Amino acid sequence: MKNSILLFALIFAFSLDAFAQSDASLRLVIEKDRSSRDSQNKLFTLTAGEHLSRADIYMANRHFPEAREHWQKVLENYPTDTNAMPKALFGMGRSLMWERQYEKSVSWFDKLTKDYAATKDGREGLAFKGACLVRLGKNSEAAKTYELYATMFPTGEKIESAYLNIIDALREAGKYPEANLWVDKTQTRFSGMPVATNALHARLRMEINRQNWNEAVKTADDLLFGKNFSNSMVTADEVKYLKGFALEKLGRKVEAVAAYSSINDNLASYYGGLASEKLRQLNSGSQIQKTSIVSAKYTKDYPVVYRAELLRSAKSLKIDPRFVLAIMKQESSFRANAKSPSAARGLLQLVFDTAIKYNKKAGYPSLQPDDLYQPGVNIAIGSVYISELKNEFSGLYEAIAASYNGGEDNAARWLNRSKPKDAGIFTSEVGFAETKNYVYKVMSNYRVYRELYTEDLIRK
Asked: Which of 93, 171, 302, 323 is the most buried (most CB within 10 A)?
């Protein structure tokens, strides 16, 4: 009976989330708001629950100002409601964070944690405050904020990421001894867990960034000796590549070749492809074992769709249309009517708040959310967006993919701490597991498309 009740609760919660994210729910709440205003267009005061419900729908569809209008009504009219207040404060901070208004976001998270630290929203707010400070370049303050989270909430939902964020924030603040100390603390606190592997990986990235090549090789060997990569943010192939890179910098060519050669080159290994290129550059004559071949059989899974639209929009902006197809395959599996839980729509899964930054340049001055389901519109706006990212990241496709999934400011930060500049070094610095896997998949897709088709999308 208890299991049945739990299952029903989960299904009900999922149904609510799905409704909040749906286009129908957005249209409904917009209509409700039209009829909930006075003659001066000011929103009526509704119940706290109704304001929160409407705000959730707007937030799920990335209509942030509209969501904040409802949270503000809660804050003004229900100051003693201990359930509604933290949700409204968190919503204000999180929505501003999505819009990259980090200073304003921090002030709302401060209000939240001051009065409601014991709530889940309060804990989340403290963690997100640290994330905002990182994006503001206030890395020492961010490290202190994450350390406060670790002290206050030792079993909190974000305790593992708090430890890892302390390491990276201290590193970016130039406090390397302290960062290394937290690597040791993390390994002790989470011994045998994936987060301990991630902490050692953070040290490897830091030593490469500092060009401490001998320390980088040693740390890579420590990681490979442990061989505990399951559920972590790093793979053995990545560590082998980084080790080979450090050995190459040390002038130990034979050992570098051995490290690169130990990575199997197959479509499942992003670093295998990079290692193959390194071996060609080193003129070693070594051959990486190929466990799969890009051949005609892949054309079914890697089709060319909407060729005319792609050539018209992408090529005019000097974007490789094969890269656009690589993103399209990953984002929507070529489904024009796809919509994600984060309110991304269409072939290239564009969110409306991003689309309206580029719609005029793409030739669509008047844009509604549902227009993004039209292939031509989606490809045109998406191509302008990708073109802007290409210019921002100097044509590094890995950074474009990371930005597309994880945000431009995050990708810029990861690129900034990628020293030396190398595609594999950049990808190792990607700080979100989802985004890192996304980069792997998009670059694998792009590799196949380049093997199968010309830049004019003609089968080779």
From this structure: 93
